[in-house]
């Protein structure tokens, strides 16, 4: 069993379909099936059960997949450590970044970092903050950038805190919100909880959610076309937006805010690339860069 087999089991687990897993591996389905048969012969146990197009790991296969995940992580860490033994920033830096920060902030940051350290390769995974948090917990990434409240006992730095706004095409009376269509977009569970806490402090009726869209860009376009209101962080707003914006505050007058954090493990700082990137990010003025 080798590193390619670790990847093979990973893609089978994710795709739950041999054809799709083969596509991810850039091999043919017969080649994938042959390799599975070789692994089953090597370990003397069945790895998969099949029911039509659906596949599942057997108990033995599930154990082997979990072993492969751990072995892959340890091998990756060993490669990273050996590349950085000379304290020179080189190798692959794996980042998990909230899609909002990836869209609005990340490209120029990475461009400058790569210019400073040309021997570094950047591997970026983007998603909602809940996904980033799972990746950093499972050591799939070196550094995670998340938005919201997350329990993290290791290294954690506040990068940005921003206000939250209600936006609408035309001016609206906040007391009428329960009767006005709301447009939601996919976000972290923490952000949704903050909005719900604010809402039920003011209203007993639930919000009238008529649209649930994938991205903040779609959400904002819907609002601009007067299809409803939305509740969004300040980072989405521009001074020239043709929208009415109302800052979200609690009944006690406290603004409702969203914080952006950088998370990483202390052990990751053994790598020069992680140390350099952390220092690079902390040197930026996220707070005043809206």
Description:
Helix 8 (189-202) links the parallel strand 7 (181-185) and strand 8 (208-213). Strands 3, 4, 5, 6, 9, 10 and 11 form a seven-stranded mixed beta sheet that branches. The chain has helices spanning 3-15, 18-25, 29-43, 59-83, 99-104, 106-116, 129-137, 189-202, 216-224, 272-282, and strands spanning 48-51, 54-57, 91-98, 120-127, 143-147, 155-168, 181-185, 208-213, 230-233, 244-247, 257-264. It contains ten helices and eleven strands. The mean pLDDT is 88. It has 290 residues and is of the alpha/beta class. The protein has three domains: 3-80, Arc Repressor Mutant, subunit A, CATH 1.10.10; 89-161 and 259-282, D-Maltodextrin-Binding Protein, domain 2, CATH 3.40.190; 162-257, D-Maltodextrin-Binding Protein, domain 2 (3-Layer(aba) Sandwich), CATH 3.40.190.290. It starts with a helix and ends in an 8-residue tail after the last helix. Helix content is 42%, strand content 24%.
